[in-house]
């Protein structure tokens, strides 16, 4: 999650991530008029911004969140600021809201997880042997539901990312469904990552991808495609070593912004990582790190870019 400091009130990221960051910031009693005007401009800039913020408000006020918090009270512990820093009262309050907002984002996927046949938590990966001899490797913080019968081989990726090794069966194509995409194959190896868009990367073979409006594309080995409800990007070449590095427990990136890398790393981290300096978040970084100690990776990236790491609690790390 990216949450900018006083010098840059506009939080960059996906519309949903931006909405979460703005939601936390606007609940800070010291938020000024300039920041509120920046928020109003962001919300009015695109319809999807207003829609994303409305979803956050609706979920925040929903009975489902209250029930989730009551069921898992340990998920939102008291905030203890361990390191002195500028405006401690303000940031302690913001940290409390960010913890709740982070749990809000997690709670939004609880229904899918209850419906899933297989799930993983942050930092966990799981290998699943399917009845047809195919294999699924479920990545961090993911949920998968099976849809198998005598005539159909299918799964629904409800959240997160998975790598599929599909056994060939021409009579029964293997189908992976997400909220906006259908991926159909006979026998191949590929990964699917779902979210606001669905990303498909092919390791070997060919897959056919279709979005909710019927637009389709064929993706071959070494290619990646991004699909939404309304759009399908042309297939582009991808670096297989980086695309499938997570299968070996690594995160590999080349000339990416620090904010993007921290957002990716946050998927594997047991708490929330907040980028609190927009300008520093634009710093370009390259690296190859093991994912078994995400806190150490954050510290290493901070050393490279001259950032400061503040551990607010075991559940919240701020980089600024």
Automatic annotation (TrEMBL):
<keyword id="KW-0812">Transmembrane</keyword>
<feature type="domain" description="FecR N-terminal">
    <location>
        <begin position="18"/>
        <end position="59"/>
    </location>
</feature>
<dbReference type="Pfam" id="PF16220">
    <property type="entry name" value="DUF4880"/>
</dbReference>
<keyword id="KW-0472">Membrane</keyword>
<dbReference type="Pfam" id="PF04773">
    <property type="entry name" value="FecR"/>
</dbReference>
<dbReference type="InterPro" id="IPR012373">
    <property type="entry name" value="Ferrdict_sens_TM"/>
</dbReference>
<feature type="domain" description="FecR protein">
    <location>
        <begin position="117"/>
        <end position="207"/>
    </location>
</feature>
<dbReference type="InterPro" id="IPR032623">
    <property type="entry name" value="FecR_N"/>
</dbReference>
<dbReference type="InterPro" id="IPR006860">
    <property type="entry name" value="FecR"/>
</dbReference>
<dbReference type="GO" id="GO:0016989">
    <property type="term" value="F:sigma factor antagonist activity"/>
</dbReference>
<protein>
    <submittedName>
        <fullName>Putative FecR-like transmembrane sensor</fullName>
    </submittedName>
</protein>
């Amino acid at each position: 999650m990216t949450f900018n400091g006083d010098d840059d009130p506009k939080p960059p990221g996906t519309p949903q991530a931006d909405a979460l960051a703005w939601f936390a910031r606007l609940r800070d009693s010291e938020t000024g008029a300039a920041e509120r005007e920046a928020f109003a401009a962001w919300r009015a800039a695109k319809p999807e911004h207003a829609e994303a913020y409305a979803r956050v408000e609706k979920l925040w006020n929903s009975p489902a969140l209250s029930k989730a918090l009551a069921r898992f009270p340990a998920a939102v512990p008291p905030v203890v600021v361990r390191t002195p820093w500028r405006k401690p009262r303000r940031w302690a309050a913001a940290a409390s809201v960010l913890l709740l907002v982070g749990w809000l984002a997690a709670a939004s996927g609880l229904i899918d997880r209850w419906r899933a046949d297989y799930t993983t938590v942050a930092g966990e990966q799981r290998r699943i042997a399917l009845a047809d001899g195919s294999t699924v490797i479920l990545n961090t913080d993911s949920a998968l539901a099976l849809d198998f019968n005598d005539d159909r081989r299918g799964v629904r990726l409800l959240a997160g990312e998975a790598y599929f090794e599909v056994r060939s069966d021409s009579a029964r194509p293997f189908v992976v469904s997400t909220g906006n995409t259908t991926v159909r194959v006979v026998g191949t190896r590929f990964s699917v990552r779902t979210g606001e868009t669905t990303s498909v990367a092919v390791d070997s073979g060919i897959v056919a991808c279709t979005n909710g409006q019927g637009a389709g594309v064929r993706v071959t080995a070494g290619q990646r495609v991004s699909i939404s409800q309304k759009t399908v990007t042309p297939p582009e070449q991808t670096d297989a070593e980086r695309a499938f590095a997570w299968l070996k427990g690594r995160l590999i990136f080349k000339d990416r912004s620090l904010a993007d890398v921290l957002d990716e790393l946050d998927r594997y981290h047991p708490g929330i990582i907040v980028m609190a300096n927009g300008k520093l978040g634009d710093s370009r970084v390259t690296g190859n790190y093991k994912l078994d100690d995400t806190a150490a990776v954050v510290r290493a990236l901070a050393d490279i870019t001259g950032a400061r790491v503040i551990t607010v609690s075991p559940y919240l790390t701020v980089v600024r």
